[in-house]
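Researcher: Sequence recovery benchmark, item below. Answer with residues only.
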């Protein structure tokens, strides 16, 4: 199973030591709610919706603080942005309810929200200017590269520790590596690793802005930085080879053709012909068109981020919950999340938007279910739809699941895309 092994991806040794030394209580570490109020202070965000226009006006004046060139910014080290944050589920039972699911374990959607907030704070820590309380940068999540889990169950009554630091920097973007550990028997053991990519923009969130360069200090840090470069190249390759731009490979074409042949209705052979049109479902299979769920969210001011757009973590939680429900109804048993990868934030979602989510089973193998959730905003005035995000989730079900079978060419492309994501996740594991 994919859970056999969870390697803490090589952290800089300085950071690794602080991790492994974790014992029972962690006094003095900031909590998740402190992370959020810190972010509001750094940006000068309003605490109530009425004042948000004025708060945004005040941010305009920070334009003068932006660097004209990256070279004008002091370089930073990995340990400069290193943060540890506590989620005291064990020591503060009153916060447990918000994190609890019906199976008496932790809601993974809430963890996605926390990772998103922590990733942004790590980047603000990397770009902090000594003399200024407020940052001229608007830092937003561009991409969730991957989140790999090595625990099936996250316990609702044990403290959780998050750690994170900037691991790679471009001109205007930063890669953040985060780890989540949970306290058991006096020691923190790993639960998940996450890699996010954040981008810096000007105070009004309109144009890219430069960020401090990163200087690796040891061979291990060199290695981590190099991995960040590789991750960037891999993403470019993955998107260049996208099935929306390029034809499937010869091997993939054979897979699709085999599925097609496997679904032809040969009962008509008596009449001497097999039609291209008449198709039948193979045993223990489900047509792809019957393996989807849809959802709708009205985006209220309560869900806004510090820039008064809808919080990326909220979008991830909603997409994850729909993905989980899709996997649950498809496999008829409780699914567990194995991996999240390649979440692109293509467009911000405005407060007041109607958010349409659709979850689709696009690939299955043994107990595994690969789910794609597509989210788009609908503008009721113009009647236009715009894609904002695509999410990819890999679940493992308690029992073996039926095979999902595409019928049309478009569904076959979704199937191959799902297979590519699944294969990449399994390689990582």
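Model:
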């Amino acid at each position: 199973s994919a859970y056999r092994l969870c390697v803490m991806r090589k952290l800089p040794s300085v950071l690794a030591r602080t991790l492994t030394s974790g014992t029972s209580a962690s006094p003095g570490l900031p909590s998740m709610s402190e992370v959020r109020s810190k972010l509001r202070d750094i940006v000068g965000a309003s605490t109530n919706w009425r004042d948000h226009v004025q708060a945004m006006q005040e941010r305009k004046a920070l334009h003068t603080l932006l660097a004209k060139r990256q070279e004008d910014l002091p370089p930073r080290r990995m340990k400069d942005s290193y943060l540890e944050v506590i989620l005291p589920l064990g020591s503060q039972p009153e916060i447990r309810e918000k994190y609890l699911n019906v199976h008496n374990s932790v809601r993974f959607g809430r963890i996605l929200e926390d990772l998103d907030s922590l990733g942004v704070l790590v980047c603000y820590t990397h770009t902090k200017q000594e003399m200024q309380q407020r940052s001229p940068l608007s830092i937003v999540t561009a991409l969730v590269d991957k989140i790999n889990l090595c625990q099936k169950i996250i316990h609702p009554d044990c403290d959780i520790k998050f750690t994170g630091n900037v691991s790679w920097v471009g001109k205007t973007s930063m890669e953040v590596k985060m780890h989540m550990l949970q306290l058991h028997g006096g020691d923190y053991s790993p639960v998940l690793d996450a890699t996010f990519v954040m981008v810096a923009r000007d105070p009004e969130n309109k144009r890219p802005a430069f960020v401090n360069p990163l200087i690796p200090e040891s061979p291990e840090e060199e290695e981590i930085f190099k991995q960040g470069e590789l991750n960037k190249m891999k993403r470019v390759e993955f998107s260049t080879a996208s099935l929306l731009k390029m034809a499937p490979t010869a091997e993939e074409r054979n897979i699709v053709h085999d599925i097609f042949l496997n679904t032809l209705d040969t009962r008509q052979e008596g009449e001497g012909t097999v039609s291209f049109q008449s198709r039948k479902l193979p045993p223990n299979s489900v047509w792809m068109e019957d393996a989807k769920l849809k959802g709708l969210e009205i985006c209220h001011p309560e869900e806004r981020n510090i820039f008064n757009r809808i919080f990326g973590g909220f979008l991830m939680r909603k997409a994850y919950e729909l993905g989980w429900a899709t996997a649950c109804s498809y496999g008829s048993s409780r699914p567990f999340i194995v991996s999240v990868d390649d979440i692109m934030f293509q467009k911000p979602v405005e407060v007041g938007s109607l958010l349409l989510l659709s979850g689709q089973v696009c690939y299955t193998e043994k107990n595994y279910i690969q789910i794609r959730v597509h989210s788009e905003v609908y503008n009721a005035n113009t009647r236009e739809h715009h894609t904002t995000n695509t999410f990819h989730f890999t679940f493992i079900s308690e029992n073996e699941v039926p095979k999902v079978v595409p019928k049309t060419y478009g569904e076959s492309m979704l199937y191959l895309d799902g297979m590519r994501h699944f294969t990449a996740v399994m390689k990582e594991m």
